[in-house]
Please model this.
Amino acid sequence: MFKDILVSFSDNFKEKTRNPFLGTYIFIWVLRNWELVYSLFNFDNTYKLANKIDFVKSYYNTHSFTEGVLWNIGWTFLVLTITYLVLNISRVIINISEKQLKPWVYKKTDSKSIVLKSIHEEVRNERDTLQLRLDKERESKSKLEIRIKSLEEEIIEVKKKGESIKENSNKLKEVSGEAEKLLKKLIDIDMLSYFKKRAVDIKKNDFIDKRDSKMNKLIELGLVVHKEQSFGGIGDLYSLTTDGEEVFRLARLME
Model:
């Protein structure tokens, strides 16, 4: 426990002495009372404890304690003021030397290998600006590549649809060509009106007399097909073929 108290006191004393004011004060006190300090460690062997105490009392009888404290505090503030003033003056000299004189000397004596900080900062700012622009360009390029790929896929899809449309168009042309021939054939045999009438009946799902010979001709031309036979003797149901639908469309356009 006693050891802990000593360690704590020692640490506290070290911490206090690190304080600029207290450390300076102790230095001033020792300097102004050097006779007392020196005598305390250099008494003659003939001096007893009582003699040492009398010496200390005699010393403070001729040196006022209060006056000494005030003088010590005053000298402490003066020393601290001068110390910090000198430190700041030295800092000014160092800054002028490092920031102004040294760059000027390097510029005059070794301008090729030495660059001023202002120029370095300017170049670095330009580099950062260019790097930012480069990153934006890369991002834009990436977006454009994605868009180009998407457009290429759309073009391929459109080409496929175009080929399909072209193929269907060719088929329609073929159908239309056949339908025109069949329409001309109906006109030549004077059955166009009959076909139109029967086409309307077929679309209405009306029954048609299967004994009608003209229906057999329409079946022969491939315009209609038999769909369903009636059981009551009313007639049969028929449906238009693809050619029949196209011929009927062309016939309506001729009206």
The first helix runs from residue 2 to 17. The two ends are 126 Å apart (CA to CA).
